[in-house]
Specification:
The longest helix is centred in the C-terminal third of the chain and has 17 residues. The chain folds into two domains: 296 residues, DD-peptidase/beta-lactamase superfamily (Beta-lactamase); 146 residues, no CATH class. The protein has twelve helices and 14 strands. α3 packs antiparallel against α12, α7 runs antiparallel to α8 and α10 crosses α11. A hairpin with a 2-residue loop joins β1 and β2. By secondary structure, it is of the alpha+beta class. A five-stranded antiparallel beta sheet has the order 4-3-14-13-12, with helices on both faces. 29% of the residues lie in helices and 17% in strands.
Amino acid sequence: MSGVTERGMWRGRGLAWRAGIVLVVVLLLVGGLVAAALVTDVDDDLRAAVDSPSEAVADPSPGLVAADDSAPAPDPAALGRILGPLADSPAVGDLTASVVDDATGEVMWERRPRDPKVPASTTKLLTAAAALTRLPGDARVDTVLARGVEPDTLVVVPGGDPTMSRGAEPGALFPGAATLAQAAGVVRAAGMTPARIVVDPGPYTGPRLGPGWSPAEIPAGNIAPVEAWMLDAGRLDPADEYSPRSTDPALAAGRALAGELGVDPERVEVSTGSVETTEELGRVSSAELIERVRSMLVYSDNVLAEAICREVALDRDPERPADFATGTAAVLDTLTERGLDMSGVRLDDCSGMSAGNRISAAVLTDVLRTASAPDATREMRDLLDTLPVAGGSGTLIDRFSGPSAAGAGWVRAKTGTLAGASALAGSVTSADGRTMSFALLASGTDPAVARPVLDRIAAELRACGCR
């Protein structure tokens, strides 16, 4: 789908600037209950949430706050009286919502929570939860370097890692990633001087663009054609988060490796079928899964999301090549097997770029509670730590100012933006210390207008004792 995307609305701040922000990582621990503390005090004027200039946000102060599951829970009726007028604002158009108590699962406030809506990039919460359910947090993806049938042919056999860095060191977007220099070093260490490079298609099959994806999103920097090997998720400029992406990322990666090894780039090809090899020279590995999930959520990287869901699919059935259909099915099947109700969910992709996706607010809060409920596993608790921090990282770097400024450093949530759709889903701790999962899905209005009101709703959850 072309048009407004989440990343398109987040332009204008350089990566170095973002890295310099003080990040606030707030884990809420109480006997097994882990959640991320969130959100804000707000003034009472709804119009200010949309029309007033943003106020400066104080630097967030790092802190560790223990959540208390014996803390008083908000009264749902009182909460409804506060959130109702915000939810009725024309700025959020048709809003569906769910707010649940993490300790008990009790509904605190909701608005048509089971209505399927366009989730945009909050889709990535399902992808992350499925990956952390199915795979160990330290799982890595290998890229194999091998000798072909012709002794001077180097064959690259990808496993599905789009994060390899073209530099000598991993970039800031994908910490711990493999590097092209490492791959070249494997070849040299094996004593091979290739004259030709062939890139095997690896375990991916099917269309390279998802249903409804527009090729215009490639130069816009939102997507690259999904292939099993690429550098810097296909970015032409690895230092620029918003860089246009390659239209042939596997070929571009092969030619970059050719440059490292002194091979004529015209003697690089991407095979359409499996390539026979005679000897494995070695392999290089991606960062651990938890770090790749963090990059996927913090920077809302669509390419990485599609790779991670295929990783889940391949773990479920290593003999079946992965495509959009098998990736989305693997996510839904994994979450269903975990006991989550996926009825009404439709996934055309795993990143949220497709306008055909449908997820309800209730499903999103159910998924979030797998990470924040008292019985959450260590692996699932990591999901909260991978979410963007308001005023501190990723797609929340420049949100929660003005009327919602108190949320800076407290909100941990996944954003979602497509043309006419805006979403926010995460976890919040009330001022009294009660943790809640929330999901807000707005449609039919300009996301730039909807987002301040969504932030305001989350802010009220933080500020409200509501008893």
